[in-house]
């Protein structure tokens, strides 16, 4: 029960719970907004009925995800103050404006025009409805731009000077376009694309496996499969670049991800291991000789610094496993989507077996996104802002009992909402199927 | 310029908070009134706020955002002092926001459950906001009396939101619901008045500085306009609502305008009392402000985007002007 008395641990758990819950929904909406625009544009063609139907089905998913994203995002913005007052006091001069620009340029835009997108048909012109769809997509991506600029700055701070213990911006350009930002933004946008691609493919397969024959479901299945197959190799390439960037700026994170304790040349790639912080070594290692050096330095004999050479480093085991889960899911995505794409291009749609695989992988994007975020965020510890502010120094002095109470409430609520969300998504897929059947009579 | 920046942002924060209270106020008010009607009217009432509530809630993010952006030192003080009410407000807003969407998409058997979640979320958020206001006015004092005062303000703000919600419905729904809404609005009006009176009495009692500001002689005459105008609006709204209870009148927007007027006057009074403090008699805008270079950077954004935000917000309200249709997509 001692964990319940540690306010820092509780505050971290609360923030982790909130951010994990929150990221699920933007990671759908960032890409889904553009997919909806694609449906909308194709729906304007002569034979666009199936694409219009697809828009009608998926805009509901967008609205639901948006609502969940908004409410959990509001919660996060307050938790900066309630749980981490030291964060704003120390780096508020940097973090504040970036968050402010997110609200001003992105949040209002998407929230306002979503109303037109959802309820505007018949009240605004077709052109205006298209414009609303574009603005929501632009707003959603701008949102990602600012939030990832801030998050990247926390990982690789740049463009600031410390005066009296507070960070002051010296160059906003350098703050925003900090060294890891381009990689992180691209990696996240592609992750969102993959999350949506597998969601599209998974739910469409579900409808298809239930015997639905509509042209809408064929169209969305095809879109999901081909999008996934196209994005996954790009994502692997960008992920590799992101890794090189991290090695340059946060070598301790890489050492923990790879569970490398002592600095070595020609480091082996640990496919599996059980990192043990007490003995500072790995148990049950399965390795590929020199492969870690090859992947990370692009040389067989490249040097990788070990954890023992850093004064402090992140917890090793969670990072090691989170990273492996992300990569594992990515490789599975590659295999399944390419197989499905090959079948789709050859015979129109994937086989029933592959459709079942796609159904199982409906939420694989979420798993990879969460594992990826855990890798990057736990990998920054014990720093909140890398090299500037330790997480422990930003915590509030609110009594543990209060944090525990609110944590309990949030966790209960989030658990219920996740179940409800997934359940309603499948329910909507079933309902969309029956409605389609009667309308098209196929 | 550097000296003026904290003041500019204090003003912006006040405007954002007021915009939030009025705009999300009617959304939350509609949520509070939902248990009073049958299922068909529930759908109608929720349809009347459907296209707006997402954007309305964003003003809270902007208001709290400015506190965070411009006054990082006050942000921590205020939010840690209000830790639990903030948590309850957020849980209320989460429930309200998700129930709004789930109730139309979930299985029909579950609709009643999501309706209840919508009501509970609206009530919790509204009460928590009023409670926070009460605690804030008393400078976050602890003890039984401050707690009871904050509870009273919580209940009165629920009445205030119910007033905004009911008068909003006067503009957005058909005759039958309209007359019932006028009745709800009339009762909520007196709860609102009680809250205004309670805050007006408490603020000068809490702080000698505030007392002196209001009751010094030449200013007193000028300031008297605020409570007088409030009283006039209360009476006008009440008479208008009484007649609306009996018959369908032209200009159904008048009671809503009165309600908004009440909130604006209350905000003016409160702003005058507090100025230049962000935390009553403890922390001024200048003490709490972020660095000038940060404030300038964000001010550029505000100057460019805020007019655009207001313009497209007005546009969307015009698109969905008039009686609300059925709640359906496409």
Automatic annotation (TrEMBL), chain A:
**CC terms in the record's Gene Ontology section:** cytochrome complex; plasma membrane
Where is the chain membrane-spanning?
A: 15-37, 58-78, 98-118, 130-149, 185-206, 218-238, 319-341, 353-374, 403-426
Keyword list, A-Z: Cell membrane, Electron transport, Heme, Iron, Membrane, Metal-binding, Transmembrane, Transmembrane helix, Transport
Entry GO MF terms:
electron transfer activity; heme binding; metal ion binding; oxidoreductase activity, acting on diphenols and related substances as donors, oxygen as acceptor
Family under the similarity heading: Belongs to the cytochrome ubiquinol oxidase subunit 1 family.
Keyword Nucleotide-binding attached: no
The cross-references to InterPro entries, in alphabetical order and at most eight, read: Cyt-d_ubiquinol_oxidase_su_1 (IPR002585)
Q: Where in the cell is it found?
A: Cell inner membrane; Cell membrane
Q: Which domain of life is it from?
A: Bacteria
Membrane topology category? Multi-pass membrane protein
The species is Immundisolibacter cernigliae
UniProt keyword Metal-binding, yes or no: yes
Output this protein's name: Cytochrome D ubiquinol oxidase subunit I
Q: Which Pfam families match?
A: Cyt_bd_oxida_I (PF01654)
Record-level GO BP terms: aerobic electron transport chain
Automatic annotation (TrEMBL), chain B:
Question: Its topology with respect to the membrane?
Answer: Multi-pass membrane protein
This protein's species is: Immundisolibacter cernigliae
GO MF terms listed in the record are: electron transfer activity; oxidoreductase activity, acting on diphenols and related substances as donors, oxygen as acceptor
> Where is the protein found, in the record's own terms?
Cell membrane
Q: What is the lineage of its organism?
A: Bacteria, Pseudomonadati, Pseudomonadota, Gammaproteobacteria, Immundisolibacterales
Give the UniProt family note. Answer: Belongs to the cytochrome ubiquinol oxidase subunit 2 family.
Q: Which keywords belong to this entry?
A: Cell membrane, Membrane, Transmembrane, Transmembrane helix
According to the lineage, what is the superkingdom?
Bacteria
Pfam families given in the database record: Cyt_bd_oxida_II
Annotated protein name in UniProt: Cytochrome BD ubiquinol oxidase subunit II
According to the record, the segments passing through the membrane are: 6-37, 58-75, 81-102, 114-138, 144-171, 183-202, 214-236, 256-277, 297-320
What's a GO biological-process term for it? aerobic electron transport chain
Q: What Gene Ontology cellular component terms go with this record?
A: cytochrome complex; plasma membrane
